[in-house]
Amino acid sequence: MKAASFAFTFLLAIAGLAAADQPRLHIDGAFQVKDAAGYLYFRLTQQDIEGVMQPESAWLPLTAPVVQERFSGDRLWLRISLVNDKNFPANLVLVAGEARTDKTHFYLYQAGSLQSAHAGGDLITRNSRPDFLAARFAFTLAPNSEAQIFVLVENPVDLAADFTLLRDSAFAEFGGRTYLIQGIFFGAIMVLLLFYGAIYLSKRSRIVAAYFWYLVAAGVFFAARTGLLYQHVGYLSAEIMNVLVAPLPGVIYAAGIRFTRAFLELARGSTSDKILRTAQYVALVPVPLAFVSRHLTRDACDWLSLILGPGLLLYVWLIRREARKSNLFLLGWCWPILVSLLQYTGFDSSYLLRNVLLQAAMLVEFVLFAIFVGRDISRFEIERSQQSVNLLMLQEDLEQARRVHETLLPVGTPDFAGLAIAQLYRPMSELGGDYYDWFRLSEQRTVLIVADVTGHGLPAALDAAVVHIAFQTAVVEADDAAAILSAMNARLIAQGIDRCVSAVCAVYDHATKTCEIALAGHPQAIVVSGNRALPVGEYGPLLGFTHHSEYISSRVSLRAGDRLFLCTDGAYEIPESEADDEHIQFAEMLASKSHLPLAAALEATLEHFDALRQNKSSDDVTLLGAEVK
After folding, report:
1. Where in the sequence is the domain holding 49, given as residue range(s)?
2. Are the C-beta atoms of residues 421 and 440 closer than 8 Å to each other?
3. Domain count, the chain
4. Mean pLDDT across 130-146
5. Residue span of the signal peptide, if any (predicted)?
6. Which of 93, 143, 199, 338 gets the most CB atoms within 10 Å of its CB?
């Protein structure tokens, strides 16, 4: 039933197209129109009133509600023939259907005499502005008489040939109501524009931006429809105004469809979003078309109004299960569409209804959507506040985790006879996945370790804590480098660690000045003797990977002044570098800094590689150095 209802509405809109294509003379009063169906007649000529009153055959019937493609110098004449068959005079007002700033002259030919009057804007002399938005002509039709009204329109503003004949009392009454409703309408739009404009500038939310620009498009459209745009901006250039005003219905539909996509919160790139995006671009077709033909632009806007408005209602109803706010959208969007259909079918025969009904419907739509958007903003603010609270709690947790992680790492300089140690640790974020430590196995043996947990941040830091426990356990169970790595591997597998861990372990014998080095998927250790750098270590599998991993200890003899460096790959890797010898370059740089104190050598080497990286390190950095005394 619902689908049938939408289809009926859509067909009703198409049926109304025929009525929309005809100019109309709306009559409110007890008098007759002599010409068939009350249609107006027109001619484009350079003649004056005396000339156009002569040959009857020169007049042609209007076939469209808007006379298009007028150019500078054109003088457009309209004629209406009236009959008053009553025994009393009729005080009447002829009011143009749309406000323009043409220089307009009205002539009344009655009982052999010609009366004239001026109304409307004056683009030529610019010496006055209209005191009424739409051009109008007040006159008296004598009892039992016939009369002809001639309307001369100068300046090339496209004329909407849609006039209303009113008794003067009805004009005074309806004119006041029209101003009141139009004032409320534009006042509401200005309030909404200022309110949501301020929110848009401060929050930049998608739905607020779409609603704001929809309000802007609607405001410009109705400013043109009611004449405000012509009064103020129209003084600049009538030709430019013709081009700018013609595609406005398409622009407001494009803005409305953009707002629809944001309001329904459709996923970007989804089928529904792509369909609506296509419709949005189609609605903008009249914009470039206006520079080619205003007549075709008006026709295109008529078709778009008949298809896009009801079509959007139907489409949103069809995707109501995908878009949870579709019912709210249908409630807000349906009012102006219904009024537009009523206007196309000629239902709004009253002067007041024709002038304010669509604006009243749009006002209802704007208020409803303002409520809906305001509710979304409130919901967003609540969610953002909750997210801020959650973020603060997370930051507190991270700070606590950072402090715990720092307790796992040794600080200061150990007091080992015959061996000086210095370290440099720089996590990429507040929490890092690198780990380093040293431990005195006995009076004669000291173990140093550097490990790198895959990843960064809190997860890697938590796994680094597991590595710390594994190392503390391993140094109790084993006393050489390979055995320590094997014990750590078994412990990590038992703990169920789900990240890969690389490590380099060095055990230094103070008595023999020898060092055992074992690797577990980690960069080699670097021994600097004099000005020479030597990478040391046999590659072994990563820790925590398999129970059957085997590690090999490499032995190297040291002498006083020699240095041993253990590091993670973050110390020497350069993002986007194509070099494959960065570790060797790092070793050579350490050797070139051997004349500096140990801690200073670490700082100088990392400063050099930071410069190569342009201070864009993408990994944690750990560098541990030991010097034989």
Report:
1. 23-171
2. no
3. 3
4. 71
5. 1-20
6. 93
